[in-house]
Amino acid sequence: MFRGMYISTTSLINNQNKMDAISNNLANVNTAGYKKDGVLSESFPEVLLSRINDKNIDYSNKPFEGVELEQDGEVYSLKTDGAYFKVGTPAGEGYSNELKFIIDEEGFLKTYHRDQKDNIESDGENYVLGRNGRIQVPNGNLQIDDDGNIIAGGQTIDSLITIPKPNVIGTLGYGVRTDRVFTNFTQGNMMETGNNLDIALNGDGFFKVQTDNGTRYTRDGSFKIDNNGTLVTNEGYPVLGTNGAINIGQNQFTIDEQGNVFLNGQRANSLDIVTINNEEYLRKEGGSLYTLAEGTTAEEGAFTGEVLSGYLESSNVESIKEMVEMISTMRNYESNQKVVQAYDGILEKAVNEIART
């Protein structure tokens, strides 16, 4: 009876999370090296909707006529009528007439998403379920016949198809939820400052910084020299070189395009700049610093870009696009708010009518 209210409430919460991300992006539009956040949303799993009574009546609109299979590289796409595919999600099992999945490194069939570089990722995604649970194919060799059966070594090991009971009349959705907040690491524009303490990275990479809690990463190159003559961030954390902290003292210094630090014309150190191959696990820590998600370690690689002394990288936030997104999100929020208010009015009227009887 109140499903519409619950669904609209999930949308309100999801849109509030989007507004939080947009507000933070707009607040940091002028922050050097800031990377904007985005919110990925996903629907709650759809469940099968059945009639409690009249169990012997067949409500199926179409008989099962097999599956349509398409393959594009490592992505498999399936469609069917008269049956469902099943996936296991954190919120329970979900059903759908269409399914896209890949085979992960362990041979499991999983849904996927594409990262900012359009690479296919399955971490945190859902397992495709067969009649025997999670589906794992040996050596990544997958064969699917026209009936949705999974064949390995000439033997049928499972089936992707769930045939609904006769009293199933369709699927039922429960709204939307925030799947994850991600950081967009695309590079911002370069701003010339003329200050040789301002350093920008042209290309994928991060400066390494030593904090009280360990090594952190940053794209914000607005550095300074502290009272000890050490190159530090605005928060006072030492910027790391390949030989440890970079001590400049009172010397004249320059930094070349490879990140080498020269004191009075002599090479003294090099900025420790690395790429993070698993940057999807980087988490913002404040002060333009990044750390790795709990339980993960950085997959560091060599920096192949260019170091620009006298420049700063601007934020990659486009204020006009963020404002447009904010307006769209607000309208969506207001629409769902009206649905909740309408249900509240219906409930109030129902209570008043009951009280009169």
From TrEMBL:
Keywords: Bacterial flagellum, Cell projection, Cilium, Flagellum. It is found in: Bacterial flagellum basal body. The keyword S-adenosyl-L-methionine does not apply. It holds the Pfam family LlgE_F_G_D1. Residues 309-352 form the Flagellar basal-body/hook protein C-terminal domain. GO terms for cellular component: bacterial-type flagellum basal body. Its main location: other. This is Flagellar hook-basal body protein. It comes from Anaeromonas frigoriresistens.
